[in-house]
Predict the 3D structure of the following.
Amino acid sequence: MNAPPAHRSLRERFAIGASLLPPVALLLLASRWGWVGIPARVCLLAMPGVIGLGMGFPEVFAPWYRGFSRVRSWLGGRLVFGLLLGIHGLVVIPMGFFMRVLGQRPIDGARSGSSWVRSKGYGSLRDPF
Amino acid sequence: MRYVLGLSGLYHDSAAALLGDGRILAAVQEERLSRRKNDARFPERAIRSCLEQAGITAGDLHAVAFYEKPILKFSRTLEVFLGWAPRGGRAFARAIPDWLGGRLDLRGRIRAALPGLRAECPILFTTHHEAHAASAFLPSPFTEAAILTVDGVGEWATTAIARGSGAGIEPVEEIRFPHSLGLLYSAFTAYCGFRVNSGEYKLMGLAPYGEPTWVGAIRDELVSFDEDGSFRLNLEYLDPLADDRLTNARFHARFGGPPRRPEEPLEPRHRDLARSIQVVTEEAMLRLARRAHERTGSFRLCLAGGVALNCVANGRILREGPFREVWIQPAAGDAGAALGAALAAWHGSLERGGLSAPRTPASTDAMAGGFLGPEESPEAVEASLRSLGAVWERMTPEVLRERVVRSLAEGKVVGWVQGRMEFGPRALGHRSILGDPRNPDMQSRMNLKVKFRESFRPFAPAVLAERSTEFFGLGGESPYMLLVAPVAESQRVPVAQEADGLDRLKQVRSTLPAVTHVDGSARVQTVDRDRNPEFHALLRQFEAVTGCPVLINTSFNVRGEPVVATAEDAYRCFINSRIDVLAVGPCFLERDRQPHASLPRSFEALAD
Ligand SMILES: [Fe+2]
């Protein structure tokens, strides 16, 4: 027995359709560089059609969309990781260095002496800080 | 009735707790319902369960309290990255997306998870250690007490002393990150090949098999104690930003080699390290307890925070510390902080944004025996079993007890699911696997064949409270299995010649060999009729048949699985392990009558 097709919102259908664009865009680039015989204009004109195809037959393209989403989030994660490593190198390290030069030490790394700090009270419950 | 919901999570052990006019109506850990151990995700299922148990909706809530101040914690995280630079780049790149992905805007996240919450319902934030302190003192039976909370890290505090009086808690002093007893213990946990934030029990269980040969090295180089009870860690050996590892190359060189991988065998060195860090932790906890007494003048102590789950250290505080009475929050880890946040909001002053309710301590405590989770009706249990194709007999409680006791006396292992689920890491006789403690083979049989876990892991005895002193040198009650005490001399059996290492496991040391650790101690649960009537009746019946008022009580789960919550979880676990008999609600099931040899499990398995 076939399972009934899941209800898909317009937004989801559009996302599935849009996920078909990257291969067409690659084709467009390939035609610009003369690697394939399809005129670039045809690729451009095909784009709305491809989106419509995905929106019209979401079940057919759902497996592609799932794979595409996985690759996209993996790539996104790598990109964000790289960007944040860059921020660490360009911002955090120099700031940490200057703080140290100015005698500021956010981490109390002393090896001896009491480590008790007198409590200042819990503060207001309304504040998240 | 006025309702307050408390929440914890997004770091580890998410949970929700619900108060109705200050009484604890429900408290649930997310992992039990999501079936992912130590689930740290926002506790949506736990919230739903709490509201359902009370029969209310989000619109009925008068306040919601979260167990941390997220912006303060975020600013600490940034400051630590600045202070730790140029190290910590990878940790920075891993941590920041988490923060930007919703940990900062908790008000928005909480409102999204509670549709129907009234706009005027305040969302409040305690500090992490305030939530722990509130969970330790406010449900306790004391009108005044010293409060000691010790864990990995909250916002900045890792250890805190406070004074509780009436409905108020006044913070006194704290030790701040990176100096953390919890992080130090976790560093050794990871180094010995166990998972941080859940493998600490394993390290504690391994400790009695080793020798304290590394205590000197730890004290000389890793942690220094001050006369005032405080301590400092030597950061040259630790990497406090690496959540999963915490140690560095210098540590590895000093302590005898690279970290053990989970699948590698345990060497004598790992056992000695486990023993050594346990000794240092006990010493540190005793010093902290003495300091808490000095600073507050109280002879009563309330304990919470992850390190307060170290029941060997707790037992020593009770026996050797300056306190006459000690009460420990059974959900001492971050799950219990959800309850603490709700209680802090309920009793907090109006100026702070709390509901300023007065407090009258309960005569035992306000935890209802720790049985604060959901319970399935007999009809729901039968419907579940029917849908799984199980074969069962429905019985009255008396007949069920009789059949269970007969099975236990025949040496069978019994799965026992009755009443409301426990809140906190220990199974206290509502979601338990039970066995006969007089049987010398029971420990290794239950470890290897039932729970599929390491053979050295100890089991705990549940004993009738009224007969506990005949068997254990406890000096008080231990209803939440949070104290380790020596097995009474009268029950001890002399050991001809002490074996080595894990071979010591096989030597009989008492009349209760399956629950007596190699050092002659046991992690005791005393069972009384008031808090735990069903389990008490079962123990009475076992005593009537065998003369022994003690049972092995271990949590109903297998390795890597959260404790079972429902009849379905219990049946799947029963089928997939070697449990002989299952008693769930009014239903009695025998293994050899079931049509299944195995079933798909209901949990996400996690590595060690
Ligand atoms: Fe904590």
User: Anything to note?
Assistant: The first strand of chain B starts at residue 3 and ends at 8. The mean pLDDT of chain B is 92. Chain B touches chain A through 59 residues (CB under 8 Å). Chain B has three domains: 3-138+331-370, 140-328, 378-593.
